[in-house]
Design a protein that fits this description.
With 81 residues, this protein is an all-alpha fold. Helix content is 83%, strand content 0%. The termini are far apart.
């Protein structure tokens, strides 16, 4: 249950996306990794069960956070390197 609690936090998904973006940039491996992570996010949403009205925005924002942080990560990589 502790792992599921961590996986529900959108900042976790954002951190993973940012690390993937900075570490790998935009290449085939990075795209496949993000696709796998998005599928893992959908599994977490499915396992979480029905969303509560006060917490559904927090739960569903993880997927968007993953994508946006990945884009920000490879933008930072492009500027730095």
């Amino acid at each position: 249950m502790f792992l599921l609690t961590i996986l529900k936090i959108p900042f976790f998904w954002a951190a993973v996306g940012f690390i993937a973006g900075v570490g790998l940039g935009v290449n085939d491996i990075s795209v496949w990794l993000i696709a796998i992570l998005l599928l893992a996010f959908l599994v977490v949403v499915k396992i979480s069960g029905p969303a509560n009205e006060k917490s559904e925005g927090f739960l569903f924002s993880g997927g968007s956070a993953l994508m946006l942080a990945w884009i920000l990560g490879f933008a930072v990589r492009g500027i730095m390197f």
